[in-house]
Amino acid sequence: MTIEELEERAASEQQRQAEFKKRVLTCTAAGCVSCGAGKVVGHFRAQVKERNLAKEVEVVETGCMGLCGSGPLVRVAPDETMYKNVDLEAAHQIFDEHVVGGKPVAAYAVDPKMPFFTRQVKVVLENCGRIDAEKIEASMAAGGYEALARALTEMKPEEVIEEVRKAGLRGRGGAGYPTGLKWSIVRKAQGDQKYVVCNADEGDPGAFMDRSVLEGDPHRVLEGMAIAGYATGASQGYIYIRAEYPLAIERLKTAIKQAERAGLLGNRIMDSALSFRIDLRIGAGAFVCGEETALMRSIQGRRGRPRPRPPYPSEKGLWGMPTLINNVETYANIAPIIRNGSAWFAAMGTPKSPGTKVFALAGKICNTGLIEVPMGVPLREIIEEIGGGTPEGTTFKAAQTGGPSGGCIPAEHLDLPVDYESLQLVGSIMGSGGMIVMDSTSNMVDVAKFFMDFSVDESCGKCVPCRSGTKQIALLLEKIRSGQATPDDLALLEELCVMVKETSLCGLGQSAPNPVLSTLRFFRKEYVDLLIPKLVYEPHEA
Fold first, then answer.
1. Cβ contacts of residue 171 below 8 Å, gap of 6+?
2. What band does 206 get if pLDDT is binned at 50, 70 and 90?
3. What is the third-level CATH fold of 444-528?
4. Does the global pTM surpass 0.90?
């Protein structure tokens, strides 16, 4: 495909969409599908057929629209009215009164001025919930593959890397390593073959950011990977995704086939010298395979167990060759940066943490769902305004960020800016973007036990500190919860946490104690209140 053909197909799709009087977009991401979105789509299509409206009304299955706790969600275009909690009865009324009659149904309509929408800035999620994720033309009509075309025709590989570097993009998988620097290292590394890997092994409890991007806009990730391949000199890409994401896998398979047929993946992309393929590798759901060295072993068909670093993947990765590993959200930021320029991206967020961040907002919060906000936004704004606060009758107690590797941020730090450096100061991390909210009904010892049990189950068992240490920490937490522990047990708990943190082989073990340490730091009284007072014995007189 040439650039001219790309532009022609994009314009043709835009014109096709404009010919419909109404477009009914229904979220068919995993969350809405689980509460009946498939039946809603079926009803809309049956109505179109029954009323002979195929030339006037288009029914589209889209990705996540964000307000996941109120699904199924439906948007009627071009007037952009969104509806929530759409069951079959609501779907019939919406089609009858709005799609046909032209009058929105107030009973199910979502207020577009609610802070959940107005306080967000969509970069990664700009197309999610707005395009047909299974049609490459829909992606093209929304700007898909424009950045790849620009990179191949107007920029040298070094210029692409420099643009990413100037944008200040940091890895969105959790560590926050400068993306441009990582790409530069892979570019300079010597090797007969280089690889680009997308880490889609999203395993944190309560996290669904990467899954939603892949379900709603898979071509954006493919485009970002292809640009990375051009910039680093790689010709082969892999997306490592967990088997628990069947819808994301199917949409990725469809997107890859479409991109190959269009000449946007494969040999001599857009008549350039770039040849780049992408294949899927399905993981079995081991949390440790989110660690990059374990992930590479799994791609190679071996057991997913971490290895010491250095050497780092950028120098010696897959099959001993230089390998670039970024996560889904990192690649999803690449095309907007190339299209709009590094200055545009760097103007958002903070000087040290530019851009936006996608969060999965879950737990004791009114507006559960997927959000995207500028880096550095105060936690209070996320919880109280975008999230709508905690359920009635309760107050905010803590927010868990970074999943099992993160920590709990208490109410006293509600005005904390959400960026890499600020979160570290209070013993938490950004992580991939899971944010679980706890209210005044939550018990923090239970929270720590939940995450520690998760780490125990997911430990690969290779190193003793993680294999045995996390188990002993979990046993001590259970002893405390059951009211059988003494102050000596609490002291031992803290000692074990430090030992596991400082001596484990990989990031899973090194960060596993974080939820315990952060709850001890900010909610120590809840632990102490469960302890048996230390007995003081008087000397026995004969």
1. 177, 178, 179, 182, 326, 327, 330
2. confident
3. de novo design (two linked rop proteins) (1.20.1440)
4. yes
